[in-house]
Write a structure and sequence with these properties.
Chains A, B: It holds the Pfam family AMP-binding. The structure is a homodimer. By secondary structure, chain A is of the alpha/beta class. The N and C termini of chain A lie far apart (55 Å). At the A-B interface, helix 1, strand 8, strand 9, helix 7 and strand 16 of A face helix 1, strand 8, strand 9, helix 7 and strand 16 of B.
Chain lengths: 544, 544
Amino acid sequence: MLKGVPSSMGDEYPLNMTTLLRHAAGTFPTSEIVHRRLDESWARTDYAGMLRRVSQLAHALDSLDITPGTTVGVLDWNHLRHLELYFGVPSVGAVMLQLNIRLAPTDLVYVVDHSEAQWIFVDESLLSVAESLADKVNVRGWVVMTDKPSSEISTSLENVYFYEDLLAGQSEEYDFQFIEETSAAYAGYTTGTTGRPKGVYYSHRSMYLHTLGLISALKIDYLDCVMPVTPMFHAVSWGFPQGAVGAGTKIVLPGRFSADNIGFVAEALVEENVTVANGAPALFAPMLEYLRQLPEAPDLSNTRLVSGSTEPPLSLMKGFSDLTGADVIHGYGASETSPLVSYNWRLKAELADLPEAEKWDLKRYQGLPILGTEIKVVGPENEELPHDGKSMGEVLIRGPWIARSYPKLDDNDERFHEGWWRSGDVGVITPEGYLKLTDRLKDVIKSGGEWISSIDMENAIMDHPKVLEAAVIGVPDEKYQERPVAFVVGRDGAEVTKEDVYEVLADRFAKWQLPDEVVVSQELPRTSVGKLEKKRLRAEWQSN
Amino acid sequence: MLKGVPSSMGDEYPLNMTTLLRHAAGTFPTSEIVHRRLDESWARTDYAGMLRRVSQLAHALDSLDITPGTTVGVLDWNHLRHLELYFGVPSVGAVMLQLNIRLAPTDLVYVVDHSEAQWIFVDESLLSVAESLADKVNVRGWVVMTDKPSSEISTSLENVYFYEDLLAGQSEEYDFQFIEETSAAYAGYTTGTTGRPKGVYYSHRSMYLHTLGLISALKIDYLDCVMPVTPMFHAVSWGFPQGAVGAGTKIVLPGRFSADNIGFVAEALVEENVTVANGAPALFAPMLEYLRQLPEAPDLSNTRLVSGSTEPPLSLMKGFSDLTGADVIHGYGASETSPLVSYNWRLKAELADLPEAEKWDLKRYQGLPILGTEIKVVGPENEELPHDGKSMGEVLIRGPWIARSYPKLDDNDERFHEGWWRSGDVGVITPEGYLKLTDRLKDVIKSGGEWISSIDMENAIMDHPKVLEAAVIGVPDEKYQERPVAFVVGRDGAEVTKEDVYEVLADRFAKWQLPDEVVVSQELPRTSVGKLEKKRLRAEWQSN
C-alpha cells in the first residue's frame, strides 16, 4: 500500500455507531419512533427520548461490567428495546450478538459458545428459548426485557436481571467515549445448508460506511419514515435501523409478527406514511394481499420496498406498483456483506427505451453495485470475466463492509481469495454494469467445461403450462463431468413428458445443454423454511 | 479511545479517490463528461474514456518520477485536464496542490515554497502567471496543458513538458495501487484577511467521506448531471467533481469563465439538463439575469443550486425559484471543512406550517449539519451553549473531514480546541437544530458581558428607506469594554439622523444595545474584492 504526505484533517476521528444517534438526537430530537409492544399496543417516543434511554442503558451496562471485549447476545423481535441495544451495546465498546431465534437449538448453543457471549438479553416472549439454552451455555447472566413488573415474570433462569429495573434511576446523560473504529459493534452467525454457523463481526467502521451507502442509494433523509420489517435478529437488520437513525427519519418498529400475522404491519405502513421498508418476498407478499383487501388502495408512490434474500417475483413487483405505486427494489447481499452490495432501483438513462416487458425483467436483476463495493465475476482460474452479459462465473465481492475472514474457522481459504469474499453465487455482469445471478455455485451444472444455469433451466421449464414445479441438478458423468437431470411436478397431476420439457427449452438452450433425463415426481424435497433441497435430490439420484 | 473485539470485515480496505473513478468507469462507463475548451468549443467524453486518460496520466506521472510524497501544483480553470489531475495525481499517492490564480503573486510564491511543490501543471492561458513565479520558486519542472501542438507554444519557462506529449503513447491501463487512506490527496491554502495563507491537506479518507456526505445530502445519483461552477482552484471545488464521479453522474465542465462572461454557463445549465451545480451568489446572480432574458423561462424544477461562501440574497433564491423552479440551497463551510458542514434544503416537517415569509427567512440560515460533522456554539469559556436560537457564541466544528491543525504553523492553539476547529464565525443554533450565523467573531460587539451582532444591526439599519449602506463596529469603552458605533451611507445623498437609525432599531434591539454614535459617510471602505473592511473603520475611529 502506498503512503503519501500526511493530511491535516480529522483522520483520527473514528466512525462510530454512537455518532449516528448523537447526530439524530441533536439535529432531529423530535423525529418520532413509533413502536408496537408485546401486548399489541402502539407507543411513541422520539430521538431525544431514545438518547436518554440509551444513556441509561449505557450506565446499566457499566453496572453489569459489560465493557470493551464483552459480547452480549440478544433474543428479541423488532421491539424498541432491541433498537436501544443496537446503539447501547456498541456505545460502551461491547459487541451485540444477534441470536437468530429460528436456529436449531444445538446451533444456538454453538453460537453462544463460539462467540463467548457473556450475557444474554431476552424478550419475555422468548424466555422458553433462553431457558432451553440455560444449562448448555456458560454465561454470566440473563437480562429479561418486559413491560410488566419484574415480580410478574417467573423463569427458571439463574442470575436474572430485568432491563427496566437496571435502567430505572440511571442518569439520562452519558459521556460516550470514542471507540476505535475497527472494533466490532455487532456479530451475527450465518446459516448455510452445510456446516456450522459462521461468525461475522461487523466493525463500527464497516457499519458506518454501510449506513452511508444505504442512505445514498435509497436517498433517505429526515422527511422519510423507515420501517424495519426484516427481523432485527437477521443480518444486522440489513443496516436499516442504523440508516434510519443516521438520516434522522421517523421509525416504525412493528414488534412481533409473522408472515401469517402481518396485516397490522401493512396497516402501519399506510397509517404512519412509511416511505422505506425492507423484507423478504415471503413477508411482502402477504402484506400486498392485505392491502388488496382494503376498500381503497393506498397511495404509496413515494415508498421504496427493499426486497432481499431471494429474487422478488414479478407478480410482487408489479402488484405493489399497480395497486399502490410503491417501488419494490431488489437488493442483493448476504450476512457477510453487511448486507447491501447492489440494488436495482431507478433504471439507467441509456435503458429508458427498452420495451416495458424487458424493463420488468431487468428489474429482477441484482442491479448496480453500491459505491464502496466492488463486484467481479471470475472463471475457474479466478480470472475476471468481461461485462458482456454472457460470461458466467462466481461472484466475488470486496470493500470496506465485506467480510475478510471467518473468525476462529479453518476453511477461510475456500471462501476468500486475495481480499475478495467468494459469494458462492454464479452470475453475469451486463455491459450496462448490472449484476444478474444465474445460480448457486454448488447447483450450477458443469458439463464439458461449460456451465449450465440450473435456475435458468428451471424457470424455463416452469413456463410450460403443464408444469407446477421443476428442479434441475447436475449428476456425475464420466465423459462430461456432469450432465443435467430435471425433476418436474405436473400441475393438477398432469403427466409431463421429456418431449414437453424439450419443447419449452428448445428456443433458449443449446442441444447439448438439454437434460439427459426428465423425472416426474409427486413433490420436490424442501427444507423446514421451504427452500428447495437439491442435496437430497442428488443423493436420491445417486442411490437409485 | 476504547478498543473492543476485532471485527472480521474489510477494515483495511482503504477509502481512496481512485475507487470513485474505478466505480464510475466500471458501472457507468457511458455517462458523459461534457467540457468546454479554451477555444470555446465544446467536446464530449465519458467515464470509460476518462479512466483511459487518467491511466495514461498515471504512467506519465511515473515517468516524471512523481511518487508518494511529491506535491504537484495546478494552475487551471474548470477544464477536462483539471478533472483528470483531480484523480490522476492522488492515484499515484502524490498531492494535488490547488493554486488559486486570484492570490497576490507574493502569496502564490509563498504557497509553492511552503508546500514544497516540485511540479506545476499550467494551462496555456495562465502561462504568464507561471512565468511570473518562475524565478522566485524552486520546482523541478513545468507541464503545459494545451490543445495546440506544443511547437506553437512559446514560453520563458525552463524544464517545460507538455501534458499531451507526456500522455501520448502511454498504456490506457494502469495497475492502481491502494493508498493509505490518511495520505493527503489534495492541498489548498486559505486566504484570511490577516496573515499568510494557511495550508489544508485533505486526505483520501476525508475527501471520500465528504463525497458520501455530499451525495447523501443532495441525493445525487447516476440520473443527475453535475456542473462544478465554483472554480476548481477553490477549496477542492467543494468536493463536487468527486461527488459527481462517485455517483456516476454526467458532468458538465464550463472551462474558463468569469462573472462578466457567464451567459454560456447558464446556457449549458439549461441545454445539458444540469440538475446539481455549485457557486457563490456572485456567480449565480448573473446566471439568473441571463436566464431572465431568454424568450422562454427554462424548467429547472429538479435542479439544486448549492450556494456558498456568503449568505445567498433572498432575491437570488426567490428569483431562481419563481423563474425556473430551481432550488437555491445554502451550504456552509470553509476550506478547512472540505467544505460542506451544513446545508439548508428541504424544510423539516415540523416547520411546514410556518408562514411563507418565515420559511424564506429560514432558508437563509446555514442549515442542518450533515451526518459526520459536529457543530457546537460555545461561550467565552468554551462551554457549549443551548440550542435555543438565542445563545450566541463561536461556532466550533469537528469530524472526519474537518481540519485538525495547520501544517508547519505555530498559531494552531488559537484556531483549534480539543479536536474542534474554531471557525471564527459567531452564530446560534435553533431548537430545531438549524445553524444561523450572526457575525464574524472579530466583528461582534462585546458590550457589558453580552454580544451584539454587528450584521443583524446592519441589516436592520438598511431596512430604513433612507439608508443605502451601513456598517456597525465595536469601539473600545472603559466601562462596557466595547460599544457599538454605526456608519451609514444615505440613499441618493439623503441625510440620515441618529433618530432615523434608533427608530428602525427600536423593535429589534434593547435600549442598551443601540449604537452610541451614528456617523454619516460618503462611502464605506471595501477591499479589492468588495468585502467591507471593518478593520479600516476601526482604525479611522481610533485615529479621530
